[in-house]
Amino acid sequence: MITASVATRSEVLQQMEGFLKENIDTFLKPVETNWQPSDFLPDSRQDDFFDEVKLLRERAQGLSYDLLAVLIGDTITEEALPNYEAWFHELEDLNRNRDNGWAQWIRGWTAEENRHGDLLNRYLYLSGRVNMREFEISTQYLINDGFDLGTAHDPYRAFVYTSYQEMATNISHRRVGQLARTAGDEQLSKICGMIAGDENRHARVYKTFVEKIFESDPSEMMLAFEDMMRKKIVMPAHYMRELGVDMGKTFGHFTDAAQRLGVYTSHDYTEILDTLITDWKIEQLRDLTPAAEKARDYVVALPNRLRRVADRMPVPKLEYKFKWID
Ligand SMILES: [Fe+2]
Ligand SMILES: [Fe+2]
């Protein structure tokens, strides 16, 4: 085992590379048997295609305005996958050569994620409730505007971010699915459930990466975790906008709607942090540098501080008219 005092980030990641290769089959599902978007959508080769689309449209009528808006925002977020993939490729230590375990994971993760945007996009198109052109403009804007996550090309920070983010998307897709079921759209509920399942598995993988790094390089990993929490975890779609709307403004309305529905709230943010602190056994970390000890204490105390702030925050009431929905 490489000791914390001598190990550089490159060495730690290099040491983990074999672990990734050995476990890649448990981290990713085989392409041959994995679900595909068309498993959940009408088959346009079939004679009953139009009947199936009609049914899909009827079921989609039951979705509330806020729920539809959140679903569209979630889809735009998924469709900005090129940004996330590019962001991974900026992490040099993970992209040394194509057979490297890290590179395999990044490709496999991207390939699985790519199905999410495809499936939701097609559902929205067939639902008959979405102004697809406005939706597409928002998607193009988001890829064009990119994002700034504060991870500074550092894999340690990046894995804190992705652990958080995958847990957050798991929660929001799962809750949209539950609300869709209540609204009578069983098929959409299934769609969201399948996607949430992927997010959950991805979250577990990223959390395992961080757990492993904590074993070899606890102080540096702790400092990276603290840094990300001080900066706050911003959502990858934080620059989301609509045509004629300032960059990031639409994102605010989207998160307001999610907050109103209880799909993703500031309490969820804190609960994810609670989970990470428990899963990574932060309170039990020992033999840290003095700076890392301070970082640990900051992070451990953070959930209660966040809870106090969240309790004071009112649920946003202002209804907003999105261009995505006529
Ligand atoms: Fe996704
Ligand atoms: Fe994801």
UniProtKB/TrEMBL annotation:
Keywords in alphabetical order: Fatty acid biosynthesis, Fatty acid metabolism, Iron, Lipid biosynthesis, Lipid metabolism, Metal-binding, Oxidoreductase
UniProt GO MF annotations: metal ion binding; stearoyl-[ACP] desaturase activity
Needed co-factor(s): Fe(2+); Fe cation
Binding site for Fe cation 2: 113, 166, 199, 202
Family as reported in the entry's similarity comment: Belongs to the fatty acid desaturase type 2 family.
Subunit structure: Homodimer.
Protein name in the entry: Acyl-[acyl-carrier-protein] desaturase
UniProt organism field: Hymenobacter psychrophilus
